[in-house]
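User: Can you predict the 3D structure for this chain?
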Amino acid sequence: MKKLSPPKFANETEEADWWYANRRAVEARLFEAIRNGTAGRGAPLRLTREALAIEEVALPIAELDRARELCAKKKIDYRTYLKNLLHDALDREEAAAKKSRTGRTAR
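Assistant: Here is the predicted structure, written as C-alpha cells:
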C-alpha cells in the first residue's frame, strides 16, 4: 500500500482539504493496521470501533438532494450538516419534553 505523507500546509483549511481528499486511503491504512495488529492502542482503535458502530438511516433521495444543494451553496459537507440538524432537533425535543414534565409537576 502506498505510503501517505502529509505535506506542509499553509493553513488549517489547506490541511483539512488534504485530509478530506485522502480520507479513504487513510481509512484503508488504518483498517489494515488494525487487522494486522499494528495499530497500537488508544484513539485510532477507539475511533475506528465507534465509526464501525454507526447505523445507517435511509432518507428519501429528494431530501438528500435538497441538503446537498443547500450545502453546496454554503460549501459544507451535507453529511455533517444533516448530523448537526438531527443533533439540534433532538436537543430541542429533549428540552421541550423536560419543560413539559417540569410544568406538570409544578401545578
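Residues 78-105 form the longest helix (28 residues). Residues 56 and 79 are 12 Å apart (CA to CA).
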